Input
Amino acid sequence: RSWSSRSCWGCHITDQGLLDISSAACVGNLTSVSLWGLAGITDKGVVHLVSRARSLQHLNIGGTFITDESLYAVADSCPNLKV
Output
């Protein structure tokens, strides 16, 4: 299968869910993901996801409790991200 876009709005995803998504063979094709409002995720899950989803062009992390650690990982891992 292939993914290009994924919204997690209304889901109850935790870091374990992000780790599971990160291990999918098609995560490298992911170009857009919305993690908006996911209170159950931390830097650990976001860092792992962005390190594997290097094709990301759009990322919504609004309403989360992530810190600068995730932002640095996004900057380092997502060269195609659009502002």
Summary: The mean pLDDT is 89. The chain has one domain: 5-77. Helices lie at 15-22, 43-52, 68-77. The chain is about 35% helix and 10% strand.
